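User
Take a look at the entry that follows and flag anything odd:
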Amino acid sequence: MPDLKKTPKSLSPEKYAQLRAELKSPYRGLRHFVYVSFAASGAIGALIFLTQLTSGQEIYRVFPNFALQVGIVALMIWLLRRDR
């Protein structure tokens, strides 16, 4: 069984550290991209529903959608911070 504390001779120490970090948390970059994309989508949706609320449309019809979009943004921010 190979010793994981030693760096293989064919890899630089920086590259080896990067590979070990990727082993500990795979697909981290992809997860961050998904979190940021969903947060941006939720923010755009929240802005649209906020403009509908301020324009005077029925609050009982628009507010649940607005609250959902704000919740999505909050969830994505929480997931992003937790992943770091």
Q: What stands out?
A: The mean pLDDT is 89. DSSP finds three helices and no strands in the chain. Residues 49 and 66 are 5 Å apart (CA to CA).
